[in-house]
Amino acid sequence: MHVVRLSLTDYRNYARAELSLGPGTTVFVGRNGQGKTNLVEAIGYLATLGSHRVSNDQALIKAGSDAAIVRALLAHAERELLVELQLNRKGANRAQLNRSAVKTRELPRYAHSVLFAPEDLAIVRGEPSVRRRLLDELLVQRTPRLAGVMADYDRVLRQRNTLLKSARARGLAADKLTTLDIWDERLVHFGSEIIDRRVALVEELAGPLAEAYASIVDADHAPELRSMLSVDGADPDADALDGGSVEGSSIDGASDSGDQVPDAGGPPVSGTAQRFAEALRTLRAKELERGVTLVGPHRDDVLLMLNGLPAKGYASHGESWSFALALRLASAQLLRRDSATGDPVLVLDDVFAELDRARRERLAAAIGGYEQVLVTAAVLEDVPEHLVARVIRIDHGTVLEDDPTEAVDEAGRADAEDGAVDG
């Protein structure tokens, strides 16, 4: 799959932008704050229904505007699809496919993308929420229906936390709060599927992760992923101040049931559901004391291991970067393997500036076979030369096509720092 044309209206710093794209590699070059990242962020949003920089859609809408519009013409083999998304400052977001209205959660079915960014270092060194989001975004792209499941879980979680806070304020004992049982049933129903899907995904990533890491580092550091589940006693968010939410589930428009929590259907039957329900019963008194939900997929984590040790705290800066890049490459490999639309679009947002020359070359070699690769850079010299097939210069929200040879000559005079325009 590749993006043939991208059109933005009132998105970030763009009143209007039109780009014609194609297979192969395109490099967006520009100084700090010109809007390079905004272009690739828009493509990533269509695939994941979220931004890699902000959690709130409001930041994506140009100041003074009521809505932002992202349109992308996507091509796969002989088929073309026009995907459109309207991000609204008020009310639910709206989406269209070939000019016909669809639910926003349907978009990842058609647009697949994997984005590499400097923020990815937090996958290794950051909080559990970053790793949960990595898994959830990949799950949604592979199974778009899960966006609705995650949104349903998030709403149940908020309602349950509200009830717990109210009970704590009123001093109710655990045995007096019988209304909590129905929320437990729904939480378990939706949450168990999320847990099971994540665990299965972690297992699927093992092989591609090892291959990707070796391709970047050219060494065997035995990278591993291990699921840490709160239903089994793990508590990576023990010091969190609230019950959290499922990353990827607060997608505007992911579910069309408004504030009404959907019926959970039949009783939970999986082993995960039984362990989840038992954990809720065991922790109910403690949850009432704290006023938050202490168990569920919103409190799970994935342990990243290198050479038998946790990467967080033990891995060097270079090893941490390699692990994060390998996870992105492994994600792309799974999408390439399973998707009916072919290769995902690979987006490298100012990544090469963060890497030494050896890792730049190895990463460039690893992504070379993908149908479409989009790269942003402040300095063109940071990008391996064989990737510089087409150059587009961005200047204060204006798109200017460059001759690649001239761009290479001028690259050394560009500012070496990139940034984001948040509306």
UniProtKB/TrEMBL annotation:
Q: Keywords, A to Z?
A: ATP-binding, Cytoplasm, DNA damage, DNA repair, DNA replication, DNA-binding, Nucleotide-binding, SOS response
Using the record's annotation, list all stretches that form the RecF/RecN/SMC N-terminal domain: 3-377
Q: Where in the cell is it found?
A: Cytoplasm
Provide the protein name: DNA replication and repair protein RecF
The question of whether Cell division is a record keyword is answered with no
Give the originating organism: Agromyces allii
Pfam families, A to Z: SMC_N (PF02463)
| Keyword flag Zinc | no
Annotated region (Disordered) at 232-271
Family matches, as InterPro entries: DNA-binding_RecF (IPR001238), DNA-binding_RecF_CS (IPR018078), P-loop_NTPase (IPR027417), RecF/RecN/SMC_N (IPR003395), RecF_2 (IPR042174)
Family recorded in the similarity comment: Belongs to the RecF family.
* Role: The RecF protein is involved in DNA metabolism; it is required for DNA replication and normal SOS inducibility. RecF binds preferentially to single-stranded, linear DNA. It also seems to bind ATP.
Q: Which NCBIfam families match?
A: recf
Domain of life, per UniProt, equals Bacteria
UniProt lists compositionally biased (Low complexity) regions at 241-259
Q: Which residues does the record give as ATP binding sites?
A: 30-37
